[in-house]
Amino acid sequence: GAWLRRGIRPRHRSERSRRVHRDPHGVSGVILSLSKGRTALITGAAGFIGSHLSDAYLAQDWRVIGVDNLVTGNTANLEQARSSPRFAFLARDITQPPPALIEEISRTYGNIDLVLHFASPASPIDYAQLPLQTLAVNSKGTEFCAQAALEWNARLLYASTSEAYGDPLEHPQRETYWGHVNPVGPRSCYDESKRFGEALVMAYVRAHDLDARIIRIFNTYGPRMRADDGRVVPNFVLQALRGQALTIYGDGSQTRSFCYVDDLVAGIMACAASDATRGRVVNLGNPEEYPIAEFARIVSEIAEVPLRTEARPMPPDDPARRCPDITVARQLLSWEPKVPVREGLRRTIEQMRRALAQAEAPIT
Fold first, then answer.
1. For residues 208 and 192, what is the distance between their CA atoms, to the nearest angstrom?
2. Cα separation of 193 and 160, whole Å?
3. Whether the predicted model's global pTM rises above the 0.90 cut
4. pLDDT by residue (tens digit) across 45-58?
5. Has 190 been annotated as catalytic?
6. Which one is catalytic: 190, 204, 260, 290?
7. Does residue 60 contact residue 34 with C-beta atoms inside 8 Å?
8. Cβ within 8 Å of residue 39, ≥6 positions away
């Protein structure tokens, strides 16, 4: 589009703007420029994490502009957000934005303080069905967000992923680890486009002094996950509630760490508000590690169904171990997960049980 061809002029912030963005303590977690009453633009707002993030910012008196092309998002996730007069929704595709979209948003909503880029398909099923869309939103879509943040003199938070580490040879994974990724495998549309997005954000930081930070999100779960997501939590919960055998790939010894969505959102907001994270990468996840076979047992126990499992071959490039080192988040943000896995699963199972009953209720 024209916004790509136009070129980017470095923007020199005024002394007032520089003063507002400085955090004298370096690790406070909250700065003047991102106080209550500001405006955030959230891409992927109708998705699982994006919708919870929208609710959380609205609860802190922000205005929120949600953007989503609804390829994997669902407007039902925005029911709570839409009840607020401070929420607006734009059904737009940021991989092919109208040339004047940045100007239109400025004209309609005024000053934007924070851009949170969460738009992307994010499950193994999506990788298979939407590889080109996944590549586009993490490349063209990320550049749109960086360009917009630069035009608005706004702060940018880019949602990357633990998949950037691939099938890691370092454990647990620290932000300094470069990863072990198959660039041409079936997962590469997600892994490599997220890595490209990180590189692009850092190029804007270096070339244009963009106030940006990157988070790498580890396995997150909670209400509003898509039932057909293909990831382990919705798979296990749905199978348990339907009385089916839980599908375990390989021998179940592979590990994952599970962070409840409320904890993740708190970490995202702390990272976005901290001046200390500018130009940094921060892992956000739960460092408690569970073998998948044990996790299946816990889900069955909380769902109050007998444990039955079905073994299937391990998918290509599926990581054997995945666990974050969250030292940076602890030090810079004083953040760590608080919701125990059993409690988070209980809430998730209750919500999915209600949704399942509603979906399968006979029409009268």
1. 24
2. 9
3. no
4. 999 999 999 999 99
5. yes
6. 190
7. no
8. 62, 63, 64, 65, 109, 110, 111, 112, 113, 114
